[in-house]
Write a structure and sequence with these properties.
817 residues; five-stranded parallel beta sheet; 20% helix; elongated
Length: 817
């Protein structure tokens, strides 16, 4: 019996459980009921009576009846957005005297506003009615909302705010672009002089009318009733820039905080009208320049010309603080932008992305001064001139004045080259110079950004990495405060020594030619993201992997490696498994491309799935190799022992010669060729015009092995090199910058070194051609060649006839001929 009672009580408790989360919320100073997205078809009536905020948005409510909120008198916030509401009874909001925010966006309330529906909402301050399929505004419902501050209205084709809206004495913000919270389309086609007439006595300060792409007709007096307007946004429409500027006539002489006319392009049918609409003249801006506006944005308007005197007039000139003219097509010499220092209060200027549509004559492109000086206003904090130049802009030094308050400086992708110093950026936090052609830079260049926290130098053709060894120079030491560093797309070959090791957070080295990652366990203590994508990383050593794992635990470091093609052969199987399991890799999808030992492509996930089979295959090959090797060693030992037992005296003499007793040196007569000449294709003229005549066509000729002459067509090149080196008494290596870059360089040098022996002294002779230095020679060659066998060609190129002083005569002396 007790068990039955317990089950009944438990069932009753489950039945009374709330479908909403209820908790205390500081923002609403009380209990908050979160019923968002619960698929509710009916209002949740079992909520606590003392809730002060209710979010029942994104459900399936279709109607609300009278008395719905009778049990919740303390509500100050109600969110009913994104439901299926089509009907609201007149008493649905009865008793909500404390309500300050009511959100009804994205429903279907086009005819659901009976008279008196808002009668108890005298304290309502924010009302959202966007996206409700309205065709007109129910002005009869609004008179009770005397304290309404912000109104977000649904857009209608030809909006008119009727007499009922004249009671909204405290209305300060009006938005009709359907973008609040959920976004949406604006259906307004036309604004008339009657649209805001009923708001004439109201101190409306903010009017937001963006993204009305169908709006192409606007009467000139539409803003006249809004006598207290301070903030105007009318972007993304088809009114046209010139027509938009004419709407400002009623605002002349006022102080305004913002005017936005972005992407307001009229579809003109005539070419001349289209051109006229894209030119700012003193006439078209006559009303704008008479308004004291703090923020002006005319971005994305296809403006092609800004005439002198069009925007630099008072009071605009003395009031403007933020000016955005980006993403236009402004052409000319750019002199209009050099006038911005006269705007003394200007602190933000964006003139970026002036995409040119026409091919300009050279005379109209930006000039090319030797040095540039830019004078900023005293309060300047932000400057963006990315992608505005259309010609190569060469300047060794750029000097910026009045940069004490400057925080962001962006001049990337302006064909800027030859720059070695920028003065005035020492205290600027964000610097963007990507897309320039700096080439070789010195450490003084990086001291230009002494306190930069974010520095972008991607795609700048930077050349500052050492070409010998695997370490980069410390040229970046001047970046003592950098936290974000972008060195992507610079064709870097080695991992650089990063600056500010203890504080750097984000490093972008993607799209380079780096084949490894070099970070110490305790070096980069704050590094959180290292982008090594699209490099030449084939695998990472165990030490590097261990360092990355430790850094991942210590600083949550993530390494981006997409775009690299890994090696997944037998020796790298542990690396592939690490790649799948480590927390140090940024990508969630770990299926990277990799190359198997047989040259076929596969994916890392496939390798990880078949790891056991691959391990057996690799181990089997190793054991087979060891077994075969051991058998060969045993059989060879037996054979050698047998041969020695048959000829003990002969092999005793061989051993004696091995220890230097009775060594006989070989002579040139014992070889088919006297010299093997190693060279690359670009050095053929030197070999055939100087070496060959001086050695083969003289009165004491010797025979040369020249690969272009001696190696028959179709024969393997490697085999020809080996035969030439072994069949020649000595080897002459013609080493030039091109030879060091040649694909056969390593093989040729290695073959010559392997052919050296004690019975042929000084078997390798090196000729340095061009700008090659001794330190540029490979270590394996320097360790084997005697110093007097390394000759610099230009030191011995004298007049013909003095054979003992010529290069070929010296070669004979060195070779002992």
């Amino acid at each position: 019996m007790k068990i039955i009672v317990i089950l009944v009580v438990a069932s009753f408790c489950r039945g009374k459980q709330h479908v909403c989360n209820v908790y205390f919320d500081k923002q609403h100073d009380g209990m908050f009921a979160d019923c968002k997205g619960r698929q509710l078809r009916h209002f949740a009536n079992d909520l606590p009576y003392n809730i002060t905020a209710l979010d029942i948005s994104e459900n399936k409510l279709e109607s609300l009846i009278n008395g719905t909120f009778n049990n919740f008198p303390n509500l100050t916030y109600v969110n009913l957005n994104a439901n299926l509401l089509t009907n609201l009874e007149s008493g649905v909001f009865k008793g909500l005297y404390n309500l300050t925010t009511l959100l009804l966006a994205k429903n279907k309330l086009k005819h659901a506003f009976p008279k008196g529906i808002f009668s108890d909402l005298g304290n309502l301050q924010t009302l959202n009615l966007e996206q409700n399929e309205m065709r007109s505004y129910p002005d009869w419902a609004f008179p009770p909302l005397t304290k309404l501050h912000s109104l977000y209205m649904d857009s209608v084709p030809v909006p008119v705010f009727g007499p009922g809206f004249s009671s909204l004495a405290n209305l300060r913000v009006l938005q009709m672009d359907s973008t609040f919270l959920y976004g949406g389309d604006c259906s307004i086609n036309k604004l008339t002089n009657q649209t805001f007439q009923s708001l004439k006595g109201i101190e409306l300060e903010v009017l937001i009318l963006n993204y009305c792409y169908g709006l192409n007709d606007c009467e000139k007096g539409v803003l006249e009733p809004l006598m207290f307007l301070k903030h105007l946004e009318m972007s993304s429409n088809r009114i046209g820039l010139q027509n938009s500027l004419q709407l400002l006539h009623p605002l002349v002489g006022r102080n305004m905080s913002r005017i936005w006319f972005n992407r307001t392009v009229s579809p003109h049918s005539h070419y001349k009208q289209d051109i006229d609409d894209r030119i700012l003249t003193a006439k078209s801006t006559e009303y704008l320049t008479k308004i004291c506006v703090e923020e002006l944005s005319l971005r994305h308007n296809q403006i092609i010309l800004v005439e002198s005197g069009s925007i630099n007039k008072q009071p605009l000139r003395d009031c403007i603080e933020v000016l955005d003219m980006s993403k236009n097509n402004i052409v000319g010499d750019g002199s209009i932008f050099l006038m911005f220092p006269i705007f003394q209060r200007l602190r933000y200027l964006d003139i970026s992305y002036q995409r040119q549509e026409y091919a300009l004559p050279e005379s109209q492109l930006l000039s090319r001064p030797n040095n540039v000086t830019i004078n900023f206003p005293h309060n300047f904090t932000y400057f963006d001139a990315t992608l505005i130049a259309y010609a190569h802009f060469s300047s060794p030094v750029i000097t910026l004045l009045n940069t004490n308050n400057l925080e962001t400086f962006r001049i990337g992708y302006n064909n800027l080259n030859g720059l070695n110093h920028i003065r005035g950026l020492e205290n600027v936090k964000n610097v963007y110079l990507s897309g320039s052609e700096f080439g070789t830079v010195t450490d003084s260049f990086f001291y230009s950004f002494l306190n930069a926290r974010k520095l972008s130098l991607g795609n700048c053709n930077l050349q500052f990495v050492k070409r010998s060894g695997n370490s980069s120079s410390n040229i970046l030491n001047g970046l003592r405060a950098v936290e974000y560093l972008d060195l992507s797309s610079n064709n870097l070959r080695y991992f650089p020594v990063l600056p500010n090791a203890g504080k750097i957070v984000h490093v972008n080295l993607s799209h380079n030619s780096i084949d490894t990652v070099s970070i110490g366990e305790n070096t980069y203590k704050s590094l959180a993201l290292l982008d090594m994508s699209f490099n030449l990383i084939g695998q990472l050593s165990k030490e590097t992997r261990s360092q990355l794992d430790i850094a991942s635990i210590r600083t949550s470091l993530k390494l981006k490696v997409e775009g690299n093609i890994f090696s997944c052969g037998c020796e790298n199987l542990d690396f592939i498994l690490w790649l799948m399991d480590t927390s140090a890799i940024y990508e969630s999808d770990r299926d990277f491309p990799c190359i198997q030992d047989n040259g076929t492509m596969t994916g890392t996930i496939e390798v990880a799935k078949n790891q056991l089979n691959i391990h057996r295959h690799c181990t089997g090959k190793l054991l087979l190799s060891l077994t075969v090797t051991c058998m060969i060693v045993v059989l060879t030992s037996i054979f050698i022992a047998y041969v020695i037992s048959k000829n003990p005296t002969r092999y005793r003499n061989i051993v004696i010669r091995m220890f230097g007793f009775g060594v006989e040196y070989v002579t040139p007569k014992q070889f088919e060729f006297t010299f093997y000449v190693g060279y690359c294709g670009n050095d053929v003229p030197f070999v055939y015009r100087i070496l060959r005549p001086g050695l083969e066509l003289c009165f004491r000729p010797v025979r040369l092995f020249l690969k272009d002459r001696e190696v028959l067509p179709g024969k393997d090149i490697a085999e020809g090199i080996i035969e030439g080196v072994n069949g020649s008494w000595k080897t002459i290596l013609v080493i030039s910058p091109d030879f060091l870059k040649d694909s056969w360089t390593h093989f040729t040098i290695t073959s010559a070194v392997y052919a050296m022996s004690d019975v042929i002294p000084k078997r390798i002779i090196v000729l340095l051609v061009g700008d090659v230095l001794v330190k540029d020679l490979p270590d394996c060659l320097l360790n084997m060649v005697e110093e007097d066998c390394i000759l610099r060609v230009k030191d011995y190129m004298e007049e013909e006839g003095e054979e003992e002083g010529t290069l070929c005569g010296l070669l004979r002396n060195v070779a002992g001929l």
